[in-house]
Design goal:
The complex is a heterodimer of chains A (486) and B (56). Chain A has 486 residues and is α/β, with parallel strands linked by helices. In chain A, β16 and β17 form a beta hairpin. In chain A, 23% of the residues lie in helices and 24% in strands. The two termini of chain A are 34 Å apart. In chain A, 55% of the residues are buried. In chain A, α1 runs parallel beside α8. In chain A, strands 1, 2, 5, 6, 7, 8, 20 and 21 form an 8-stranded mixed sheet that branches. Chain A has a domain of 230 residues: FAD/NAD(P)-binding domain (3-Layer(bba) Sandwich), CATH 3.50.50. Chain B is an all-alpha fold and 56 residues long. Chain B has a domain of 35 residues. Chain B has 3 helices and no strands. Chain B is flat, with a radius of gyration of 19 Å. The N and C termini of chain B lie far apart (42 Å). In chain B, 16% of the residues are buried. The chains are: A alpha/beta (486), B mainly alpha (56). At the A-B interface, α6, β14, β23, β24 and α9 of A face α1, α2 and α3 of B. The complex binds flavin-adenine dinucleotide. Flavin-adenine dinucleotide (FAD) binds next to α1, β2, α2, β5 and α8 of chain A. Flavin-adenine dinucleotide binds next to α1, β2, α2, β5 and α8 of chain A.
């Protein structure tokens, strides 16, 4: 029998983790193939520092091909477009269709057969959801290293204007009512403020945080509670404090209707309209699935069987619509196996969550103004590893996935930079357990307060630097990489 | 919805004046190197505990 073929779509945190562990565990027993449109791996969390000019893109990116070649992983630089999970009438071998993104053969169609498939294609950055949003419109982004470099150049220009005596208005936050990843916007906000201070122009800057969160500190996780100083304190208190201490203004409950040069039109949760004027805006886009299609063996469209309307892949979650009060931890997926095809899995941002984590809200006009659930680096990597382990077991005869990684059963450790300097920098170190609150197990706050913690200080910054180097080392699959936890 | 969270511009002073602020002592501890070396160890242990609990 020929070797089983595992194909992984996407070489981000989730896909790259899956590929690395599959290669390690399976040795030569299987073919491991990665399909991804970019030639590089990007350690996305450090894009924040590229966006304020403290790192160059090549310090957060490295080419994948040499690493995959060294490890015996096949790499196709291509964009997956269509899944054929039943194969074709004449040949039932499942395969993926992909379009080459190589400069030498752009658009060349590839057919990559698989026995097991992992969809780890992450998010589509959906700038088009808000007219005028994004680097092709009137705002900046730090979601990719080139975007972040562009943000850094715009920041240099703003600083030059401030040095000439002009005041500058900075608007940082979320560019749509349904954005997620508030943590990244928040990090950029405080790093920007720190950098303006470092460059001696802080007093010339008016900085506003614009967010779709109901209140500060929600972060798409419904906020967290921390035991501190004899009280159990919600995260909005700490977040507000952080902004107030730095003289930053904030605007919550906002959906961005559209951007014109220098002006964002807003709709608020209470139905009123507003606007924010700016000289530089860094606003994150909402995320969608990357738009993979699926066809059956006769060529009929079965995309809806595999994917939710958002484009994210349906997995073993409970997708039945129910009110916030009825949400359960057990709604969240555990194995990430497609209910339609047991040899297909999704990992990282690519899986469709059953519902948000924060309470859903909409304006009287029906506009959803509520954060989508975040899927940060640690859960994405843990899911990537769990899925890889299940596939490994199934190759060795297991009938079902053997490894679980529910976001309602795992915690997360996260370090949010608040300024990059070896002695004056700080970062907020946060742990939560579990990521998705479980009100059956932890009735009052939904989380285990013994494992939910937050603290800001220089130590956090040192940890952030350490993690930057450790995770890039791990992603390069250097000796003992697998000992570094996700 | 109550007025407390109204997102309209109340002016920076009004907005910030209700927030908890760190004392000078708290702020100085945040970048005090010996204290932060200790916190580095403590935070790492706390994170390892959560990572361990998540893997088991
Ligand atoms: C600015 C920023 C800062 C962040 N900071 C932090 C942080 O400090 N800590 C933290 O834990 N998390 C952070 N995150 C979140 C973290 O980056 C994500 O959780 C993580 O990248 C998700 O991993 P993923 O593999 O699902 O997606 P990604 O890492 O986005 O990877 C998706 C991969 O799929 C590829 N792909 C896309 N389309 C296709 C296709 N059609 N076919 C094949 N491949 C495709 C992409 O090129 C990419 O390689 C941050 C995110 C941003 C944007």
């Amino acid at each position: 029998m020929s070797r089983p073929r595992v194909v992984i779509l996407g070489a981000g945190v989730a896909g790259h983790t899956s590929a690395a562990f599959l290669r390690k565990w399976l040795g030569d027993e299987a073919e491991v193939t990665v399909i991804s449109p970019r030639p590089d791996y990007n350690w996305i969390p450090s894009n924040i520092w590229v966006g304020v000019g403290l790192l160059q893109p090549d310090q957060v990116m490295f080419p994948l091909q040499p690493i995959y070649q060294r490890k015996g992983i096949t790499f196709h630089q291509a964009k997956a477009t269509v899944l054929h999970p039943e194969g074709l009438d004449e040949d039932r071998q499942p395969f993926v269709e992909a379009e080459s993104t190589l400069e030498t053969s752009p658009g060349l169609l590839l057919r990559v057969p698989y026995d097991y498939l992992i969809n780890a294609t992450g998010p589509k950055l959906s700038f088009e959801a808000t007219p005028g949003l994004g680097p092709r419109g009137h705002s900046l982004s730090v979601c990719t290293a080139p975007h972040a470099q562009e943000a850094s150049r715009a920041l240099d220009e703003a600083v030059a204007r401030m040095k000439k005596g002009d005041r500058q208005r900075f608007l940082v936050g979320t560019g749509h009512g349904t954005c997620t990843c508030q943590g990244a916007a928040f990090e950029y906000l405080v790093n920007l403020e720190f950098e303006l201070r470092a460059r001696g122009v802080r007093e010339k800057a008016d900085i506003t945080y614009l967010t779709n969160e109901f209140e500060l500190g929600d972060f798409g996780m419904g906020g967290i509670h921390i035991r501190r100083g004899g009280y159990v304190t919600p995260s909005n208190i700490f977040t507000e404090s952080l902004l107030a201490e730095r003289g930053l203004r904030w605007v919550t409950q906002a959906h961005v209707k559209g951007l014109e040069p220098g002006c964002a039109s807003l709709e608020f949760l209470n139905g009123e309209d507003g606007e924010e004027r700016f000289d530089l805006a860094m606003l994150l886009p909402p995320f969608k699935g990357v738009g993979l299609k699926a066809l059956d063996r006769q060529g009929a469209d079965i995309t809806e069987r595999l994917f939710a309307p958002s484009g994210f892949m349906r997995v073993d979650a409970d997708y039945q619509a129910k009110p916030f009060e009825a949400w359960l931890a057990s709604d969240w997926p555990r194995t990430y196996q497609s209910p339609a095809f047991p040899n297909i899995f999704a990992a990282g941002i690519a899986f469709a969550p059953p519902h948000p984590i924060s309470r859903p809200r909409q304006s009287p006009r029906g506009t959803a103004i509520t954060p989508a659930p975040p899927r940060t680096g640690m859960p994405s990597a843990m899911i990537g590893r769990a899925v890889a382990r299940s596939i490994y077991s199934m190759i060795w005869g297991a009938k079902e996935p053997t490894t679980t990684a529910s976001m309602a059963e795992m915690g997360a450790a996260c370090v949010a930079s608040a300024g990059n300097n070896p002695f004056r920098g700080t970062a907020a170190s946060i742990t939560v357990f579990p990521i998705v609150p479980d009100f059956e197990r932890y009735p009052e706050f939904g989380r285990d307060l013994n494992h939910t913690f937050g603290e800001i200080g220089l130590a956090g910054h040192w940890i952030k630097i350490l993690l930057h180097h450790l995770f890039i080392y791990k992603a390069k699959m250097r000796p003992f990489w697998s000992f570094i936890p996700e | 919805m109550t007025a407390v969270y109204t997102p309209f511009d109340q002016g920076r002073r009004a907005q910030g004046s209700f927030a908890t602020k760190p004392t000078d002592f708290t702020k100085s501890l945040r970048t005090n190197v010996p204290w932060q070396i200790l916190r580095f160890v403590v935070i790492n242990l706390k994170m390892i505990r959560v990572i361990w609990k998540s893997h088991h």
